[in-house]
Specification:
Length: 235
C-alpha cells in the first residue's frame, strides 16, 4: 500500500459535465484524483490534462469495475472524498411512468442508487479513517413531480434517502446529497432532445459552490449548490 499525504478524491462520471469540471477544480487545489467513466477516450483526455490523475475506464454498475476502483484506493492508502456523480437518465425522450420500460428502470436504479451505495460500502473504511466526505449528486427531480421524470427522479429520491440515513449512521463521515441545478450537459440535452438548452449554466459555474461546501463541512444532509455559491457569483 502506497501512502500519500495528498488529499485524494474518487469521482465517477468524470469524463464530461460536472464530474470533469469538479475534477479540474480539485486538481487546481493539488488533489490526487481517481477518475471513472465509461468513455475511455474522453476519460483519458481529461486525465492527461491533470497532474496526479488516474483514469479507470468502466461502468459503476459493474461489480468487477467497482473492485478495480477499490483496489486502486487500497494501493493509494487514502480517500478523502467520494463523488458519486455517474448517472443514467433512462430512455430519451423521457417516458411517462405508465409506459416506462421496466428493464430500463432497473438499469437506472442499478446505476443511480445501487452502484453509489455499494461503492460507498467498499470505501467507507478509508473515508472513516480520513473523516472524509461522500458527495452524492442529486437533482431537483428528486423532490419535484415533473412529468416524464419518474424513473430518474425516483432514483435520485432514493439516493437522497440513502444519503440521509448514511449520514445519521456515520458520524465521522460527512454525507451530502447535492442538487447542482440545471446545467448545460449531454444528459440535460437528452432529457430535452428538441429544446435549446444554451441558457443553462455551464457545469464549471457550479464548482465554486461545491468547493465551498467541501470547505465548510456542514452537517450531513441535502443541499442545493446555489446555497453555497460565492457571493459575487450569486449576484
Amino acid at each position: 500500500m502506497t501512502q500519500t499525504s495528498q488529499p485524494t478524491a474518487l469521482i465517477t462520471g468524470a469524463s464530461k459535465g460536472l464530474g470533469r469540471a469538479l475534477a479540474r477544480g480539485l486538481s487546481e487545489r493539488g488533489w490526487r484524483l481517481v477518475l471513472d467513466a465509461r468513455n475511455s477516450s474522453a476519460l483519458s483526455s481529461v486525465a492527461a490534462d491533470l497532474p496526479d490523475a488516474i483514469a479507470v475506464r468502466g461502468d459503476v454498475a459493474d461489480v468487477a469495475h467497482r473492485a478495480d476502483l477499490t483496489r486502486i484506493i487500497e494501493r493509494l492508502g487514502r480517500l478523502d472524498l467520494l463523488v458519486n456523480n455517474a448517472s443514467d437518465l433512462g430512455p430519451s425522450p423521457l417516458p411517462s411512468l405508465a409506459d416506462y420500460p421496466i428493464d430500463a428502470l432497473r438499469r437506472v436504479y442499478e446505476t443511480d442508487v445501487v452502484a453509489p451505495l455499494v461503492l460507498t460500502q467498499l470505501l467507507l473504511p478509508h473515508l472513516r479513517a480520513s473523516s472524509g466526505i461522500v458527495l452524492n449528486i442529486s437533482s431537483d427531480a428528486a423532490v419535484e413531480p415533473y412529468p416524464g421524470w419518474g424513473g430518474y427522479g425516483s432514483a435520485k429520491a432514493a439516493l437522497d434517502q440513502l444519503s440521509a440515513v448514511l449520514g445519521a449512521e456515520e458520524p465521522d463521515v460527512r454525507v451530502y446529497a447535492v442538487d447542482p441545478g440545471d446545467m448545460r450537459t449531454d444528459m440535460h440535452q437528452a432529457a430535452f432532445p428538441d429544446e435549446d438548452i444554451s441558457d443553462r449554466a455551464e457545469p464549471e459555474t457550479v464548482v465554486p459552490a461545491l468547493l465551498g461546501l467541501l470547505d465548510e463541512r456542514p452537517a450531513s444532509g441535502r443541499y442545493r449548490a446555489a446555497e453555497w455559491a460565492p457571493a459575487e457569483a450569486a449576484r
